[in-house]
Amino acid sequence: MEQDRSSGVGVGVRGFQALRRIVRALDVHSRKLYRECNITSPQMLCLHSLEKNCNQTLSRMAEELNLSVSTMNGIVDRLESRGLVLRSRSDLDHRKVHLSITAEGTMLLTSVPELMRDSYARAFGSLSEGEQELLTVLLVKLADRFDPVQKSVGGSPEII
Q1: How is residue 154 annotated by DSSP?
Q2: What's the CA angle centered on 41, arms 35 and 17, to 5 degrees?
Q3: Which domains does the chain have, with CATH numbers?
Q4: pTM of the prediction?
Q5: pLDDT digits (tens, 9 = 90+) for 82-123
């Protein structure tokens, strides 16, 4: 492992420490959001997604937010019980349930402090275009290696 000349810490260790700092910032932000606004980060992401793309299905939103359908269902249950989200059956296929944000949900979005995603966008935007591209490629590559299901050469899922 390559060593950082100034600190003697390996590149892998420094990278892991940087990821831990990012995870910690996300955790601190999430707790503050819940304490001040009584809403979780995943619930806020759900509301933002519905504001941007109204009338989504549960499975589509779960895919967009990288959550399981059962986790997404629990989030929507809580948002619906607070009157922030509506569920409605599809006119064409009664098995499909569409989600939409309510006026109360939209009002909540305007009153909530800055999302961590906005802080990320600002920090990311301070990098050069080349650095943004490189970081994105490497983060996607790293995230892909964490996925529990990988595609094998034949294309079928393989548990690793």
Answers
A1: T
A2: 95
A3: 1-38 (no CATH), 41-113 (1.10.10.10), 114-144 (no CATH)
A4: 0.70
A5: 999 999 887 888 778 899 999 999 999 888 876 666 777 888
